[in-house]
Amino acid sequence: MQVLWLYLDFLSLQLDSLYQARQSEDNNVPIVLLDKHDNLVVQLNSAAQACGIRKGMGLGSAAALHRELQVMEYRREVEVVKLEEIARWLYTCTSDISFWPPNGLLLRIQNMLSMYGGLTSYWQAIQARLQPLQLSYRYGCGLTPLAARMLARSGQGVISQECNLLRSRVDDCDLEQTELDGKIRHQLARVGIKRVGQLSAIPPGELAKRFDVQLATYLGRLNGVFHHPVDFYHPPETFVQYLELMYEIENSQVLQHPIRRLLTNLENFLRQRDKLTTELHFCLSLRDTDALEFKVQSAQGEYRAEIWLALTSLKLERLSLPQPAYAIQLSVNQLLENSGQESDLFDGRRALHSPAQLLSRLQAKLGKEAIWGLAAQDDFRPEHSSRYIEPLQGSDTIQWPIPCLRPSLLFEPPRPLTEKVSLLHGPERIQTGWWDSQDVCRDYFIARSAQGQWLWVFRTPQAKWYAHGIFS
Amino acid sequence: MNPILDHLKNKGWLWQAEFRRTASQVPPTGGFEALDHHLPGGLAAYPVVEIHSPPGIGELRLLLPGLAAQSRQDNRLVAWIAPPHKLNAESLHHAGLPLFRMLIIQPQDPKQALWAAEQCLGSGACQSVLLWHGDLEVAQLKRLQQAGKQGQAQLFLFRTRQSLSLSLPVPLSLTLSAHATGLSIRVNKCRGSWPPPPFELDLRKRWPYLCLQQAPLPQDHGKVIPFHRAS
């Protein structure tokens, strides 16, 4: 089967991926991205286009055309990251995806055509998949990767699998559209070769004699004579997404909106893999100071954006931003299998939340240090026999004898006894703990204060009296 | 009947003096027997129970048997929100409460305590919520009630501050004070009927060491067990 490639060329990837709270036409602020090295405009939005700003313009002339022009720095790494997100997004539609950084994706499509029943419906599926990303792109089919790339970048939008048509389209292309060196192009132009077709007509041997090996290799790959190795994309096991904000955000509540977008992407990611996660890492990049990192945890594995958003907003309430944030990164490292939740259908009770879900909510808002479980420990010392532990973790198997008369509330630490009490029962001596240097020697009594409070008091060998608990 | 009266009655805002809940209306929970005897409908019939009590006279011991009995039927959590001191696992275990279903919440401030209480009540994951709180406004109480209704959970509200205003619209409000044989209980408010007269609750049987007077000895105590001599 003839190999067929589709190349997607994203024209303004960094610009399109900027978070725009509302991509509305009414607040038409012209934005341009500027290449730092030569101070030329490389990407611009439609508003900037309307002002007369063009690609390749200098900063001075662009700024002169509109006084509210917003200028941002072009960053190749942002595009590369975004490209990977697009690949991940497209992966559900098509299998063989290869990166052409910074802004191109190459798809090997001939394998997919039988699944989609032809090129037309395949292309429709790809377009539909790309539509929600709201990116502007050019596309083109080709018999070789380089041919597809060239046709895509020429802007002709050729979607076809007919070899003759594709070949003739390639032959029609100007040498300007190839990726050849300016020097070689100039040399070729001087001998009257202006189109790819003219170049291909020359026998390769003749070309190799007169030009260097780069041209021969390029031409061989373009025409499919030479094999062109391509690395394909494999979806990652973990989720990392970086979102640059259109405006710096100072209020942590406002952050909810971009975070919702990230969480929706996470939901898609997890749902495609049928996985859950229990922990999200957020990293807020702040102006003039170190990035702020925080975790959002759920005791129960969860994938739904809605639930994560509720937990995250509880966390955000407790957070104050020292500096405005300009970017958010969400990463998830641990994925769990979705094992399904079982609850008794005939329980008769509407279990709105499971205990683990309740715990996640409480922990998100109050902090982990505010929620505890309770466990007994085999120790005679009251400080050790009752412990606060991680919530919902304890067990109810107690293998040792439990003393029957103990106060329900313990003072921690024991308080010096300051009021007059009458001792009613006791003493009960507790003398132990010599092995861990927290040894105690106490005589415990049950006492009643004048107000009728039942206290658990003890006397130390130094005849000091303390109250250790109340029989509430 | 007057439709307005009918409407009010259906809403539960109006009740008639002869109306008494019968025991059959209330699922038998056990454990609260001592109290159930005095309260129309039993303690379990009241979704919110407000308790005014000085600390340490037995206000928790009053509830522990009932909570334990409920825990045997209901495998949901018991939430303790802002208890004044550290809970003792041994005591709760001895009372029959399953320790692994205890959830202890120590919020930073009373506002967070209310939030946590509302979450616990409304989640459907808790059978009972015990909340220690000072001042509560009517609107806050209503929210808690609503949440408790949604999650089918009972709220025990310990008023830590002795406030004179008893006007909170709680279904049941008790004032406890110490007594030689246990507790002396005054019912301030009891939805659906006139509050019963103050009564003493005898805890001597269950907590013999935590009462001033000893329980009367059982009748057969003086029986002499014949000592078998080896012959």
Indicate the CATH class of chain B: Alpha Beta
Helix content of chain A: 25-40%
Radius of gyration of chain B, in angstroms, nearest whole number: 20 Å
Largest sheet of chain A: 5 strands, antiparallel
Number of helices of chain B: 6
How many distinct domains of chain A?
3
Counting DSSP H or I runs of 4 or more residues, the number of helices of chain A is: 16
* Structural class by SSE content of chain A: alpha+beta
Largest interface: A-B, 59 and 54 residues
Tally the structural domains of chain B: 1
* Fraction of helical residues of chain B: 25-40%
CATH architecture of chain B: 3-Layer(aba) Sandwich
CATH superfamily of the largest domain in chain A: Reverse transcriptase/Diguanylate cyclase domain
**What's the overall average pLDDT of chain A, rounded?**
85
Could you provide a short overview of the structure?
The complex is a heterodimer of chains A (472) and B (231). Chain A is an alpha+beta fold and 472 residues long. Chain A has helices at 13-17, 46-50, 59-65, 76-90, 110-116, 119-130, 145-153, 163-172, 182-190, 196-201, 204-210, 213-223, 256-273, 305-317, 355-366, 382-385, and strands spanning 5-10, 31-35, 40-44, 70-73, 96-100, 104-108, 137-142, 239-249, 275-286, 292-302, 325-332, 336-337, 371-376, 386-389, 409-416, 421-432, 440-449, 454-459, 465-470.
